Amino acid sequence: MGRFRSNAELALWIIVAAVAYFAAAEVGLRFALVGDQVTPLWPPTGVALACLFVFGLRVWPGVTLGALVVNALLGPTLPAVLMIALGNTVAPVAAYLLLKRVGFRSDFVGVRDVLELVFLGALAAMLISATLGTVTLLVAGVVSAHAFWGAWLVWWTGDAMGVLLIAPLILVGKGIRIPKALSPLRAIEAAMLAVGTSVVAVSATVVSANLLFLVFPFVTWAAMRFHLAGALPCALIASTVAIVAVTRDFPAFSGLDLTAKMITLQAFNGSVALTALIHATITAQRDRARQAVDDTCTQLAQTVLTITQGRPLEGVIDTAPRLQTQPPTPGTAPSSRQFSPRQLPQTQESPGKNRG
After folding, report:
1. What Cα–Cα distance (Å) separates residue 120 from each residue in 33, 47, 109, 131, 355?
2. DSSP code, position 350
């Protein structure tokens, strides 16, 4: 019975991973730049990597199932569908194994975790899916030899952006707990950040001058005030607006060929993602350190208050017997607390002193 229940639970998580992959793919395909399959932001890679961290490596068949369904609807041939689905499965699995190998922490405790995600999870592992997928489209006749490297660049950076923008959002979001006493001003501030990022990003793309850098103050503000929970949504909003501007040929990107558009777009997407991840992680580290200092100061203040009121320090008294019974550290002199009166040397009388 227990084994059946475990297998049923595994099957459920596999189905969840497949459905999540398919839903994310439907969103990503709306921004396709090369044919119907190559997009500058491919959310399924981030969804797949997050599912592997949340449910474990055992749900990889769900990633394969989702990739097969998505590519079967696109074609072009059955062998091509199988090869692309293989690449879409191997890339997030390789990213998961690489990150596990180096001790990646999915709650982003330090900057090291961010750098591991960028270089191993996004840039290195996504080479697999981009290369395998683009070669498959080349062999199938969907992409010409002249357009190969442009398609490869779009595929690689699109998968990488999916890892950088979608996976952290899911991994951080699963641990968020909304406080019961939520401050209305804080909720208003969060809403203003989201709206402000959207308005500034849209305004920057409808003019010929490239003003997308104006969103960075909003991303930084969100990182300082709400950490990753606020910075990542703002980064995703800004990136989505920029991608829509490229696919709809807004004035900020008009007149550029595919390669120039991708370099400009993905340089912006990578910068905004790194700004959100690194700045929010460093701010969270600083806040945790400050909280630890505050807690220590509070404990010291309570100790001083106890001394001034004449009450015994129970914690100190409780630890005194243990200190007396602990053996001295080799190579060091025993502490004065470890001597009893019997261990003190006896004072000898001077031989020249009269006795009597």
Report:
1. 26, 16, 17, 16, 88
2. P
pLDDT tens per residue across span 128-137 = 999 999 999 8
Which tokens go with 154? 């779009």
pLDDT the model gives residue 341: 43
Residue 137's closest CA among 75, 73, 72? 75
Q: How does pLDDT run across 154-193, given as a tens digit for each residue?
A: 899 999 999 999 999 999 988 777 777 778 888 899 999 9
- Residue 335's pLDDT band (boundaries 50, 70, 90)? very low
Which residues, in sequence order, are bridge partners of residue 38?
Answer: 34
Of residues 314 and 336, more confidence is placed in 314
Please state, in angstroms and rounded to a whole number, the distance separating the CA atoms of residues 276 and 219. Answer: 6
Write down the pTM of the prediction: 0.79
> According to DSSP H, which parts of the chain are helical?
2-28, 43-55, 60-74, 78-101, 111-116, 126-140, 148-165, 167-173, 184-205, 216-247, 258-308, 314-325
For residue 35, list its beta bridge partners.
none
> Residue 38 in contact with residue 84, Cβ under 8 Å?
no
Angle between helices 60-74 and 78-101 (to 10 degrees): 150
Fill in the amino acid letter for 166.
I
Answer for the pair 194, 187: CB distance below 8 angstroms, yes or no.
no
Contact 166, 45 (CB under 8 A): yes
DSSP tag of 34: B
CA distances from 3 to 14, 16, 17, 58, 257 (A): 17, 20, 21, 15, 56
Residue 68's Cα: distance from chain center in Å? 27
CA distance 163 to 117: 8
Which carries the bigger pLDDT value, residue 158 or residue 318?
Answer: 158
**Cα–chain center distance at 305:** 43
Distance CA 183, CA 99 (A): 37
